[in-house]
Write a structure and sequence with these properties.
alpha/beta, Rossmann fold, two-stranded antiparallel sheet, 10 strands, 43% helix
Amino acid sequence: MVRRFKEEHKIEHKVDSFPETWTTSEISPQWGRLAIVTGGASGVGYESALALAAAGADVIIADVDEAQAHWAVGRIRSIAPAALVRFERVDLSDFRSIGGFVEKLLRLKTPVDLLINSAGIVATGRRHLNSAGIEMQFAVNYLGPFALSGMLFPLLAASSKPRVVQVSSISHKLGSIHFDDLQMERGYSGWKAQYQSRLAQVLFTRELARRSRGQGWPIMAVAAHPDFARKGIIANALSSMTLFNLLHKRLGPHYSHEAEQGALPILYAAVSPDVQAGGLYGPTGEGLGFSEVSGGPTTYPNEAESEMAQLLWERSEELTGVKWPRG
C-alpha cells in the first residue's frame, strides 16, 4: 500500500525560499496574541517561546517537565519582564491529560492564535506503549499533537489568523506509514518508529492545509524542522551509549547548530506572512552526508502524498477519539 501511494500519488508541493539572513529581529509585534508552545521548557521549544514572549505574545509553555518548565518561565520573565508567560502541565502521550488542558482553555474562551507542536521524543531502545496501548513515539510525536490541535479547534477558529506549526524532523524523508501495523508490533525498530512519526507530522500538516482550504477553516497549517540542534531532543533524549549517540557527542559540534538557530525556521513558520499553507521549512547545509541539517533556514518541496494523508487522518481520529468538524 505504501509503495503504491508513493509511486502513483506523489504530489509536488513547491514553496519559495526565504533569506538565510532571517532572524528573530524580523518578528512583528505579537501583542494581544496567545501562543501555545508544547515542549517549550527546553531546546528549540524554549527558544521559540522566548522569542514570541519577547515580541509581546502571551505564551503558554505546555510541557511534562515541571521543574524545567518553571525554570523556563522564570528565565523568560527575567529576559522579557513585560511578557505574560505561564506553564501548564501536559503529557502528550496521555489523551486525558491533553483533554484536561484543553478544558481549562475552553472555560477561559480566549482565542488561540498560534499553536507550535514542538514537544517530541526520539528513538527508544525498545518498544514502549502509552496508557492507550499506542506505540510511544507515534503517540507523543504525532497523535498527541493531532489530538491537541483538534480539541483546540474552537479556540483556533475564534482567532482572526490562527496558525498551527508542526515541528517535525528531516528524518521524515526516511519514513513510511505502516497502515497495516501502525503500532509496529511486528519487528519493532525505534528508528523506523521515529521516522514514521515524523512523516505523519508532515502528512498531518498537508491534510490540515487541504481541509482548511476546502472547508473554509481559517487555520494556516505549516511544518518546520530544526535538525540538528545541539540542545534539545537529540542532545537530551539519547541517554544510552548507542553508536548514534557517540557520533552525535563526538561529531555533533561540526555538523549541528545551537537551539537558537534551530528555532529560526520554526519561528519563521509561526509568524512570517510569506509562508505557504502546507509548506515545510528547515535549515540548509550538509553534515555527515545529510543535506538540510544545519545553517540558515530555507524551504524545499514537500512530497507528502494526499491520499496517504487523508487515510492517516481517518485512522488518527479513530485512535484518538478526536473528531474534527465536518464541513
